[in-house]
């Protein structure tokens, strides 16, 4: 999966995502999830990040299962022997929702963990003609994320140091962050421009992101798979 | 030979208004001479640089008359991809000038911008890295680099683009002396080998010794008042030049700070230290950053903390602010400080390097009031006696007035702290922390990016506080001269261990 063109990969994984969203087949969802896991296992990925990402996924899946199980439309009654059928469809309903979470997470992780973000953005720029202003703006913004995290800790520490108690998402904390974010954006754009960056000028490419035959094969395979499922009983 | 010329330039930031940052400015810079432009903070020297780089007036401000030309061309009218071959810039904050993830990608980004053919990029990138002696950083993530390394990468970008001029806006403000000198030497080499014009704005001249050919100086109003000054290694040899520099709020290299404070001798200190660090140890993901620091700080004394970037200085400050988990103990007046008390209002106060990082209120007035209230609350809890709240409130309001008048900010009490000038922000920052009633004040780089006059004013203000209230001051700095002239004792952090400087080597 690591070598497939990032744009093609993104399209190829988005397709089944929309497809599954329109269906209600929990076993199909689970199959897609297992398939994603297998593909992840044979790709070069960072297992630490994978495990860290799976924790919220599993929690969400359990949560949605329980929600779907408990609050199925039209079933507000407690379960009894007489309403066994209802209870059964509650499990079914929960399974549909939970398996969907797993399938989407599997497909999402497959893209996120096997793709270098710089290559993805470069590919979006080269293959899907995303304007360079967006592409490089995105990368620059990504680069200052760690600065922002540090800034957030700083700001919280500042409030604590003055004996003020604030909630983690308080607007009081966001205000200084916003003031600074504007300045960072200015500084960064000036720096990029002074290195010759011009959103409208033509540019050469250091490492082109190739589109190869295998990328088309991947895309067709996914499309065929989706089409095939339509004809399943 | 290339020339940047300013002819009758008048520039203001406001769309309409009559406050001009630069007025009637006429000056020429020749690429044959490495020039450093100096002057007080806020005098307009950075503005001048941004005009020369074509960043202004395109991005901000109004050039109401006159012209800025590089060899007859207006830099602001050139498209960025052509302009960057004429002028390259290096900025003060190393963290905010990159847009890619790795060093190699960043260099490639620069070359892509100017449409260098792909086949040539590899060798240009390698050449630029080799020139800056940072080949080993080629595939490193920019995030993991120190400030000095980042500036070297920036220099490599400039070496790759090879502009006619390199303009630098206080490029060494964040760096330790060694990185600064390395970069200054490389700039000199670029100048000699490729004839690159170098124009830097800086008010610390030490790092330009032996590199700069000429110093120009501006006064507070943005007028050019000194040209053709030279740097000399020997103090006092050329008093005419150092007097001229003083008028630009800049010190000649090697100048002593005029602190006439009476340094305390060790005998005067109390037997029991006010604050004691015992075996402070911090590791990040298995790598030790601080290896068992021990230090005693006595009441009323001042301590300087030296340390290059990466020595663990910011980690130590994070520990003291309760931001980093650590092993070891802290004692205040002999009793252990609980870890969760760190970073709360108490005996230890902390002033951040950038005062903006600690503002919590909408107005200057509230900034001080918040501190006084928190102090009153702590006192009330300690004394277990809640007095009449209204009278306390009244007393606090009077106190805010006297504090703000003391630091000359009473007239600005209704504006946002962010609207103040750099020097004003710093004064407010220190006053706000002191108003919490702390006895030990940590200051992270209090004179960072400050000119000579501001540096003296800030340190004098801190000294006053020490004298009036017996506050203990611990400040970090890159400026060894300042440490030697001001501090009673000097500590230096090196690779996670704390060394106490021998008094006799001063």
Give a written overview of the molecule.
The complex is a heterodimer of chains A (233) and B (506). Chain A is mostly helical. Chain A has 2 domains: 6-116 and 210-229, no CATH class; 132-194, no CATH class. Chain A has helices at 6-21, 26-41, 47-70, 84-114, 117-126, 132-143, 145-161, 171-194, 213-230. In chain A, α1 runs antiparallel to α4, α3 (47-70) packs antiparallel against α4 (84-114) and α5 packs antiparallel against α6. Chain B has helices at 45-52, 80-86, 103-113, 118-131, 147-161, 177-194, 239-247, 313-320, 364-383, 389-406, 422-434, 452-469, 480-486; strands at residues 3-12, 22-30, 35-39, 62-70, 87-90, 165-169, 197-201, 214-218, 224-229, 275-284, 287-297, 302-307, 327-332, 335-336, 348-351, 440-443, 472-476, 489-494, 497-500. In chain B, the strands form 4 sheets. Chain B has a 6-stranded mixed sheet, sandwiched between helices. Chain B has a 6-stranded mixed sheet with strand order 15-16-17-12-18-19, with helices on both faces. Helix content of chain B is 33%, strand content 23%. The mean pLDDT of chain B is 86. In chain B, 48% of the residues are buried. With 506 residues, chain B is of the alpha/beta class. The chains are: A mainly alpha (233), B alpha/beta (506). Chains A and B meet through α6, α7 and α8 of A and α2, β5, α3 and α9 of B.
Short description:
The complex is a heterodimer of chains A (233) and B (506). Chain A is mainly α and 233 residues long.
Summarize the main sheet of chain B. 6 strands, mixed
Large-scale geometry of chain B: globular
**Sequence stretches where pLDDT stays below 50 over 5 or more residues of chain B:** none
Helix run count of chain A: 9
Count of alpha and pi helical runs of chain B: 13
Strand order of the largest sheet of chain B: 5-6-7-3-8-9
The helix/strand order of chain A is: HHHHHHHHH
* Total number of strands of chain A: 0
Oligomer classification: heterodimer
Average residue pLDDT of chain A = 87
Determine the mean pLDDT of chain B: 86
């Amino acid at each position: 999966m690591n070598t497939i063109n990032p744009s093609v990969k993104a399209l190829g994984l988005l397709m089944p995502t929309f497809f599954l969203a329109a269906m209600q087949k929990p076993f199909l969802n689970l199959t897609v999830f297992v398939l994603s896991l297998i593909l992840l296992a044979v790709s070069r990925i960072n297992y630490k990040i994978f495990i860290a990402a799976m924790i919220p996924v599993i929690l969400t899946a359990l949560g949605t299962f329980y929600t779907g199980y408990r609050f199925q439309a039209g079933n507000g009654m407690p379960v009894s022997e007489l309403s066994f059928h209802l209870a059964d469809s509650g499990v079914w309903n929960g399974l549909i929702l939970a398996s969907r979470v797993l399938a989407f997470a599997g497909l999402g992780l497959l893209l996120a963990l096997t793709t270098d973000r710089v290559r993805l953005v470069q590919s979006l720029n080269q293959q899907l003609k995303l304007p360079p202003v967006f592409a490089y703006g995105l990368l620059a913004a990504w680069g200052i994320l760690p600065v922002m995290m540090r800034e957030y800790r700083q700001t919280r520490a500042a409030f604590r140091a003055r004996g003020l108690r604030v909630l983690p998402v308080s607007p009081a904390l966001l205000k200084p962050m916003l003031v600074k974010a504007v300045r960072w954006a200015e500084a960064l754009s000036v720096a990029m421009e002074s290195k010759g960056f011009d959103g409208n000028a033509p540019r050469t490419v250091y490492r082109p992101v190739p589109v190869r035959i295998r990328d088309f094969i991947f895309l067709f395979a996914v499309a065929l798979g989706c089409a095939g499922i339509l004809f399943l009983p | 030979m290339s020339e940047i010329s300013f002819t009758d330039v008048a520039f203001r930031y406001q769309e309409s208004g009559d406050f001009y940052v630069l007025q009637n400015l006429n000056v020429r810079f020749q690429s044959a001479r490495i020039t450093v432009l100096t002057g007080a903070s806020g005098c307009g020297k950075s503005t001048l640089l941004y005009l020369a780089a074509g960043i202004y007036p395109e991005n901000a401000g109004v050039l109401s008359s006159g012209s800025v030309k590089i060899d007859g061309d207006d830099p602001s009218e050139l498209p960025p991809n052509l302009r960057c071959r004429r002028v390259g810039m290096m900025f003060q904050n190393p963290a905010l000038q990159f847009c890619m993830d790795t060093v190699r990608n960043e260099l490639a980004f620069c070359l892509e911008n100017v449409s260098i053919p792909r086949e040539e990029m590899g060798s240009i990138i390698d050449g630029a890295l080799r020139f800056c002696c940072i080949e080993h950083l080629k595939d490193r993530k920019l995030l993991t680099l120190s400030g000095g390394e980042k500036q070297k990468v920036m220099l490599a970008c400039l070496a790759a683009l090879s502009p006619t001029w390199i303009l630098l806006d206080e490029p060494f403000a964040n760096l330790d002396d060694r990185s600064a000198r390395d970069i200054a030497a490389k700039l000199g080499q670029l100048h000699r080998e490729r004839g690159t014009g170098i124009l830097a704005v800086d008010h610390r001249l030490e790092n330009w010794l032996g590199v700069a050919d000429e110093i120009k100086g501006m006064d507070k109003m943005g007028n050019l008042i000194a040209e053709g000054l030279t740097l000399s290694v020997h103090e006092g040899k050329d008093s005419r030049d150092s007097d001229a520099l003083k008028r630009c709020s800049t010190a000649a290299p090697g100048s002593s700070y005029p602190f006439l404070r009476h340094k305390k001798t060790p005998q005067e200190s109390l037997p029991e230290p006010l604050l004691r660090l015992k075996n402070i140890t911090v590791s990040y993901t298995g790598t030790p950053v601080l290896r068992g620091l021990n230090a005693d700080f006595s009441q009323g004394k001042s301590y300087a903390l030296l340390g290059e970037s990466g020595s663990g200085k910011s980690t130590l400050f994070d520990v003291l602010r309760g931001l980093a988990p650590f092993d070891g103990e802290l004692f205040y007046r002999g009793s252990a400080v609980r870890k969760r008390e760190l970073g709360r209002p108490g005996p230890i106060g902390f002033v951040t390097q950038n005062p903006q990082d600690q503002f919590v209120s909408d107005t200057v007035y509230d900034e001080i009031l918040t501190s006084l209230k928190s102090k009153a609350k702590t006192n009330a809890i300690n004394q277990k006696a809640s007095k009449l709240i209204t009278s306390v409130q009244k007393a606090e309001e009077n106190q805010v007035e006297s504090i703000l008048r003391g630091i000359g900010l009473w007239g600005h009490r209704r504006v946002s702290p962010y609207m103040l000038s750099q020097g004003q922000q710093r004064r407010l920052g220190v006053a706000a922390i002191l108003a919490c009633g702390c006895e030990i004040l940590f200051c992270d780089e209090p004179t960072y990016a400050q000119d000579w006059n501001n540096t003296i004013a800030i340190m004098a203000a801190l000294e006053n506080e020490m004298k009036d209230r017996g506050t203990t001051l611990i400040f970090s700095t890159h400026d060894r001269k300042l440490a030697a002239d001001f501090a009673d004792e000097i500590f230096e952090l090196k690779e996670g261990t704390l060394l106490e400087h021998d008094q006799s080597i001063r």
